[in-house]
Amino acid sequence: MFEKLKKTFSKFVESVVSAVKEDTLSEKDVEGLVSDLYIDLVESDVAVEVADAVVDELRRRLVGVKVPRFGEREAVIKKALYDSLLSVLSDVPDVDFYEESKRLLEKTKPVSVMFLGPNGYGKTTTLAKLAFQLQEMGFRVVAAAADTFRAGAREQLEEHGRRVGFKVVGGSYGSDPAAVAYDALQHAKSKGYHFVLIDTAGRMHTDANLMQELQKIQRVVEPQYSIFVFDAQLGNEALEIAKYYSKYVKIDGMIATKVDAYPKGGSILTFMYTLRRPVYFLGVGQTYRDLVKFSKHDYVKQLLA
Ligand SMILES: Nc1nc2c(ncn2[C@@H]2O[C@H](COP(=O)(O)OP(=O)(O)O)[C@@H](O)[C@H]2O)c(=O)[nH]1
Ligand SMILES: [Mg+2]
């Protein structure tokens, strides 16, 4: 995963190592090195504001730093990179979705999770993957077919339900999505389910009706998690849409999908930095097991490994 971004960083480390002539790096040395990095970052889908922030942090950490002549050079540079990336992401909480949900379940049952995002980004597939994993952990899960706009959306969810073994509530075509979500919540309460997973519609996001619909679901269900699902490959386009959504609806965190087909890796950094929200999981393939937990610490470590 993230091959391109990894290469960007390893190339940077190498270039710094070979640039050090004295024991320290001068401002001039650092300037040339970080400006190359900047370009590589932007080419890996890191948004310019984020690349700026990373480079600023690095400059601060590298100018004048003592670099040993032999041996530990690489480690010193890597440490500066690691600290810079984490510092850029310092406002982003790292949330373990499973652990936090378990804590929530002690007080609130069911925990409801609403999936948001445009068509084709992977909401329904991700919902089914999460249902699969929660059930494997022993939780009981019901899904709400609150995408009542797209013909066939309910059937698609029901097909996942059959394969994974979860129940789907409601959603005849054209019915009120908030009513569907509310019914699913009531059903879950009365039958003792742990989780309600709410699928939603994702037509043209600038559609004012859609935003009202989503707001209404959030009003009547008060989901513990409203998760924006984004296609990692669509970087900046997805980010603009997410920013638009966030003006109208609550977004607690994100899930990046199609990461298996996304060697650049930078949009994930960009999303966290811009929305200041955690990424709970990555979608890394087409099977139900292809949803992996995400943490910013692991991400940064992996990028520099
Ligand atoms: N390779 C890959 N494909 C995915 C992933 N997540 C979703 N997809 C595919 O993306 C397409 C759209 O997914 P869907 O769940 O219907 O999107 P929705 O319109 O947001 O509900 C489907 O063909 C999925 O199989 C992923 O993590 N990796
Ligand atoms: Mg869908």
Structure report:
The protein has about 300 residues and is α/β, with parallel strands linked by helices. It folds into two domains: about 5-90, Four Helix Bundle (Hemerythrin (Met), subunit A), CATH 1.20.120.140; about 95-295, 3-Layer(aba) Sandwich (Rossmann fold). The protein has helices at about 5-20, 25-45, 50-60, 75-90, 95-105, 125-135, 155-165, 175-190, 210-220, 235-250, 265-275, 295-305; strands at about 110-115, 140-145, 165-170, 195-200, 225-230, 255, 280-285, 290-295. The model has no long low-confidence stretch (mean pLDDT about 95). Helix 10 (about 235-250) runs parallel beside helix 11 (about 265-275). About 55% of the residues lie in helices and about 15% in strands. Strand 7 (about 280-285) and strand 8 (about 290-295) form a beta hairpin. The chain contains twelve helices and eight strands. Strands 3-2-4-1-5-6-7-8 form an eight-stranded mixed β-sheet, sandwiched between helices. The structure holds guanosine-5'-diphosphate and magnesium ion (MG). Magnesium ion binds next to helix 6.
